[in-house]
Amino acid sequence: MVAPTGAYADSDMFKLQCSRSSDRPAAKRWDNHLTDECRARAPGILKVAARFLKRPGMISLAGGLPSPDYFPFSSISATIPAIPGAAESDVFEAESTIAMGLRDIASGDAAFDLSVALNYGQAAGSAQMIRWITEHTELVHKPLYADWDTCLTTGNTAGIYQALRMLCDKNRGDSWMTEEYCYASALETALPMGIKTVGIKMDADGPIPEVMDELLTNWDAAKKGARKPHVLYTVPTGQNPTGSTQSAARKRAIYKACQKHDIYIVEDDPYYFLQLPSNSNSHQNSSKLPINTFLSNLPPSFLSIDTDGRVMRIDSFSKVIVPGARMGWVTASEQMIERFIRHAETASQGPSGFSQALIYKLVDEKWGHQGFLDWLQHLQAEYTGRRDVMLAAFEKFLPKSIVSWNSPSAGMFCWIKIKHSLRPNAKLYSALDIEEEIFAACLKRGVLIAKGSWFRAEPDLPLDDVFFRLTFAASSAENMEVAVRTFGTALRSIFNLA
Amino acid sequence: MLPITKAARLRALIATRRGVASISCRTARSLHTRSSLNSAEAAATAQPATHEVDYAPSLLSEIAARRAKAGKLVAGIAAASDSDMFKGPQTGKPKAKRWDNHLSAESKSREPCSLKQAAKHLKQPGLISLGGGLPSSELFPLDEIDMKVAMPPDFSEKGTAAHGQRVTIGKYDVRDRDGTYDLSIALNYGQSTGSAQMIRFLTEHTEIVCKPPYADWRICQTIGSTGALEQALRMFLDKDRGDSVLTEDFSFSTALETITPLGVKAFGIPVDDQGLIPEAMDELLTNWDAKARGSRKPHLLYTVPSGQNPTGATQGLERRQAIYRVAQKHDIFILEDEPYYFLQMQPYTGRGQPDAPAPNNVEEFVSSLIPTYVSMDIDGRVMRMDSLSKVLVPGSRLGWIVASEQIVERYQRHAEVASQGPSGFSQVIVHKLLDETWGHEGYLRWLMNLRLEYTKKRDALLAACEDNLPRDLVSWTPPAAGMFLWFTIDHTKHPSAGTRSLEEIEQEIFDSCIKSGVLVARGSWFATEKDAPLPGLYFRATFAAASPENMNTAIARFGQAVKDSFGRK
């Protein structure tokens, strides 16, 4: 691949099966869903002018790109740890390195080097990373329509932020739907934009499609103070905070309801690859799965069932490589990606070149797709082990008469329900009071847990249930046990249990 | 090199005139013994002992002493920090004014993130958190990053390839090697301000370069000035209020493209070869007619004071002071976008003339820079946007803002939902280079070297212009900073002047340039008010990236295109 400084790339250049010329249908258009702000974005004039650079012999005095002659980095390399027996491919057998020099392209046949990665690039990200992501998308999601496209983001935070600016406009009275308990940052993104959030009631499988359908069918704009929602934001896998994962059937039902009401879906799926098998011993075996079995065991994403091009899928390296990369990607129809990139040109100019260089070297040149999927299996085994430690601690230390939970099949979170009505003198206190009482009692004893009320999509509605979110991602097994035991002790003392 | 006594006199003079604290070589050298600079570096800066004149303690040594006194910086995963932790005493300085009425409804309604608020409990000793959703650093597939970086005095690409310094960042340097920053911290989630480690370096750098005259200034890192500008505009501009923004009448095209979709108008202020004309700005504001303009009176100025894009103009000290006074008079908040600040070049002496003497040391270099708006900002009415893009690498996507505590806090709230701060790879790599390998003095020497390199490039372009352009048709001012040269073409001498529009003539010259193989930027691309008639015929050329030979060929082609359009041979 030849992709010099600032080279433009889109997925069509790298697709194997479903290119625009295929017989698959094109995505629907979403003009009426877009905001005025989004529609008003014109292509950057300097980036348009850059198309003249393709002419042979052209000398440019137009762009303000610094010369790599003055980049103070001659080379950057990184050491990758050995993970013996982690997977079927041998890339993890021994410690190894990845390395990138300033002029690898000029001095060899490298596809990417620091002179390119560390200069200005396209807001969509480097051609090198776009290629990898396009191939990855074909492997994992196999989109059903022809004109899907991808671009990099500076992480899912930015992905959600830009998607909202694209789709929701307070001057139009817009609202959006989310799970009734929702990722707090997403809620904090919408609020200052003047967008009303509508929470969809959930069960163990995530948002309930019938509830959503009914809500939309009977929408009363005057009463609700917002026009009928045209956007659904959902975290289908290991949802934050409830830990719930939508089954394939649930996704299809939600998708169908969205078709009926012309809802655009923002699928935020950072935990997709943290699938956690239910049998506590199975992770030993699952890490040895052949790649095809591993892939076919993954639940279908909204993107993979999307016949209309009504899904923007937001993916991230944060939970599976490192959060500090501040790098992720979005996949959607060409129209939506083009609008997304126009915004990224003025909002971020794409992710860090250091991040792109190192992640590219790792996932493309070092691991390849096979190695990346092997790495994910290793990660799943690790997180499954951690989840099981936490669940065992629940069994051991929590008073089951007042506490219940589901075993999460993906992600990083356990969601615990407290029967607050069983507190002595419960009638004297609101659910919020009791939640605060438990939170404070844990804190006093040295344990920090997250309150369910922090995640409420509509915090003005009365709170009926008391929940807490506990994560098993970052603590050691010993600390998890200590913390869960302390939580149990605090509950017993408040609920006056033996 | 200036004789030592003369250099010392100059330093003292500069120090009194500009209030710039002098950086004595004696103390600078003592800094080396404590820093990780190698012996080649120390030898290169070694100065005769006769330099020891009785100055006030230098800022660099003050900063080193402050660090030593504060002890090792302890800042783990997602540690909160602000500039106050790292500043020198701000005694006697006033606090910044409040800008409540300048902020947009959106900005004012931002609440602190509930999860980040909960993080304050993490300070409790022995606390176990099951609260946050941070992945475990144990599961990061990177153990170590090694790199080879440029070292003084030979910063060249060749020199670095041959004998650059090897530096290593480990995963657990803090735990295992007495480090202050490592991969387990940098590559996990962090604060939207960026890491404490980088906040410390940038706070100190701001003290060296800007010395804000009010007490409650702060730093927040950004994902580059592109992102910073969009956030700043959303903080201050509200289309529902009929807001607008002032800027140079030819302005950075990406900035204009950021403003337009927000539904607010940008109004251009005429410029001369020193940029914005303060009298024109005052007049525009004094006679503002909201109805005729379709916007209420502006309360925000966006300006690029040094090496402005596209005009290449640099505002001198008096010019900046005059603009600041106009901003005070009309209660304007200033966005100071300064990516080219450190690309202030040597004065242009003319062809064949001896070069102006280069700064002898970093103190002379810092003193030679035109003071920033922040350095004269007694009201706290300036947000300065800085970036590493033009002076280190654009790909770091790492910059920072300097503003009052109120403004930085609002910026931070926005960054929490818009970006979560810059890349951890960028932060830890840049920190390793700037803080741990170069130190403040090494970084200033890098910047000084860049100044001389860009001076050479500019002079090559100016020589090409002198050789190839028809002087009666094309005029230019040698730029004092930045990357851009702005050509003014005397359109009154065009054979079709009066019959064809300026846009048409501009298009004709541009097309002819493309045909002959040179890409220059059209003036109209940068016009702030696109619906107003063009005030003249302009083109922008850059000397940043082309070789001297290519610049000569390119300018010859441009000159021919102009001559062709004007019917000359």
Automatic annotation (TrEMBL), chain A:
Family matches, as Gene3D superfamilies: Type I PLP-dependent aspartate aminotransferase-like (Major domain)
Cofactor: pyridoxal 5'-phosphate
Span of domain Aminotransferase class I/classII large: 144-486
Classification via InterPro entries: Aminotransferase_I/II_large, Class-I_PLP-dep_aminotransf, PyrdxlP-dep_Trfase, PyrdxlP-dep_Trfase_major
GO BP term (any one): aromatic amino acid family catabolic process
Any single GO CC term annotated in Swiss-Prot or TrEMBL for this entry: cytoplasm
Entry EC number(s): 2.6.1.57
Superkingdom of the source species: Eukaryota
Keywords: Aminotransferase, Cytoplasm, Pyridoxal phosphate, Transferase
Subcellular locations according to the entry: Cytoplasm
Catalytic activity: an aromatic L-alpha-amino acid + 2-oxoglutarate = an aromatic oxo-acid + L-glutamate
A GO term, aspect molecular function: pyridoxal phosphate binding
UniProt family annotation: Belongs to the class-I pyridoxal-phosphate-dependent aminotransferase family.
PANTHER family (UniProt xref): AMINOTRANSFERASE, AROMATIC_AMINOADIPATE AMINOTRANSFERASE 1
Protein name, as recorded: aromatic-amino-acid transaminase
Source species: Trichoderma harzianum CBS 226.95
From TrEMBL, chain B:
InterPro entries registered for this protein in UniProt: Aminotransferase_I/II_large, Class-I_PLP-dep_aminotransf, PyrdxlP-dep_Trfase, PyrdxlP-dep_Trfase_major
Top class in the EC scheme: transferase
An example Gene Ontology CC term for this record: cytoplasm
GO terms for biological process, alphabetical: aromatic amino acid family catabolic process; lysine biosynthetic process via aminoadipic acid; tyrosine biosynthetic process
Principal cellular location given in the protein's record: cytoplasm
Enzyme Commission identifier(s): 2.6.1.57
One Gene Ontology term of the molecular function aspect: 2-aminoadipate transaminase activity
Gene3D superfamilies: Type I PLP-dependent aspartate aminotransferase-like (Major domain)
Catalytic activity: an aromatic L-alpha-amino acid + 2-oxoglutarate = an aromatic oxo-acid + L-glutamate
Annotated Aminotransferase class I/classII large domain residues: 221-558
Cofactors demanded by this protein: pyridoxal 5'-phosphate
This protein's record includes keyword tRNA processing: no
Family affiliation: Belongs to the class-I pyridoxal-phosphate-dependent aminotransferase family.
PANTHER family in UniProt: AMINOTRANSFERASE (PTHR42790), AROMATIC_AMINOADIPATE AMINOTRANSFERASE 1 (PTHR42790:SF21)
Keywords of the record: Aminotransferase, Cytoplasm, Pyridoxal phosphate, Transferase
Entry superkingdom: Eukaryota
Record organism: Trichoderma harzianum CBS 226.95
Protein name per the record: aromatic-amino-acid transaminase
Keyword set includes DNA damage: no
Compartment annotation: Cytoplasm
